[in-house]
Amino acid sequence: SAVIxxxxxxxxxxxxxxxxxxxxVDSQVTMMFWYRQQPGQSLTxxxxxxxxxxxxxxxxxxxxxxxxxxxxxxxxxxxxxxxSPEDSSIYLCSVQGPQGGNTEAFFGQGTRLTVV
Amino acid sequence: xxxxxxxxxxxxxxxxxLVLLRCNYSSSVPPYLFWYVQYPNQGLQxxxxxxxxxxxxxxxNGFEAEFKKSETSFHLTKPSAHMSDAAEYFCAxxxxxxxxxxxxxxxxxxxx
Lengths: 116, 112
What we know:
The complex is a heterodimer. By secondary structure, chain A is mainly beta. Chain A is built from no helices and eleven strands. Chain A is globular. In chain A, 34% of the residues are buried. In chain B, the strands form three sheets. In chain B, strands 2, 5, 6, 10, 11 and 12 form a six-stranded mixed β-sheet that branches. A four-stranded antiparallel β-sheet of chain B has the order 3-9-8-7, with no helix packed on it. Chain B has a two-stranded antiparallel ribbon with strand order 1-4. The termini of chain B are far apart. The mean pLDDT of chain B is 90. The A-B interface holds A 4, 31, 33, 41-45, 48, 92, 94, 96, 100-110, 112 and B 32, 34, 36, 41-46, 49, 51-52, 90, 92, 94-100, 102-105.
């Protein structure tokens, strides 16, 4: 299993500002995933972050809005840039087990973001 | 592309009653299937997973799910609901790669 720590756990931000969310894993992992969970909705994958390469973004998400860093095998950050109230969501960091897709994903506790 | 459908965004049961949460998937390849639970203000916790071994999968907290290929279903059940089971439940699937596709979630309410 993997233990994932996310910081901050919650924040209230002014529109137009940016927030960087940190994700720390207690073991080395190749791929880290960032999800968004909008109020009352399911999880949507934002991007996949591999160490040593640029993140791969899903349709509807762009690097300018959600820049991601992956400086080593245990850490990643997601920045939500130029925030608007529509960005109010829970943002979750995730990793998967060593066998890839046939093992479970582990999640951080999430960052609850409110943009006012 | 993989898709996951959860029927019923809200399910309410009495304490001690059967819990049945429905999940259907669509996939052109054998999927790996998962059920996650999310308690308020917490991240997701794995309940159980299907990875092409036994079709009846037992998980934590007394939950189990049965993979039925003919019905493309992976419904979650628990014989007797407990108040502590009140949470949101997500079905998820992957086609063998690393991307998880989640259903829209089912909020389970347990009443006395």
